[in-house]
Design goal:
The structure is a single chain. The protein has one domain. The protein is elongated. The chain is about 70% helix and about 0% strand. The protein is an all-alpha fold and about 130 residues long. Helix 3 packs across helix 6.
Length: about 130
Amino acid sequence: MAEHRLLVSLAARIVPASAALDGAGRAEMLALIDDTVASRAPAMRRQFHAFLALLRWSPVLRYLRPIDRLDGSRQDAVLRWFQTHPLQLIRGGLWGVRTIVLLGVYGRPDAGSSIAYTPSRNGNAVLHARARR
């Protein structure tokens, strides 16, 4: 699916370590993204997919290829253009896509150990104990 290829490509630029994900890791990432987008209101889903299409196809005007078919330096240039665009709507769209990609990469069960995140399983109990003091 072209949208999944685009998301994998964007993930590699946004979180370089995600390029090392194996097939199962990529599948988990894409499933998290798909589930998150599917749980949103229909209007928000349409906006997300429309912005991904804009992000994918706008580089054709300059590079004659969609963003997921460009080399890394050109992908970075396109993403910088979106990130610094004068219209807040465009910048906000990129931040939304970036947030969803970060959720997909770091929301996987195995991702916590890769960034040395070790949550306390009884964190709320500790918080409540501190609040009573």
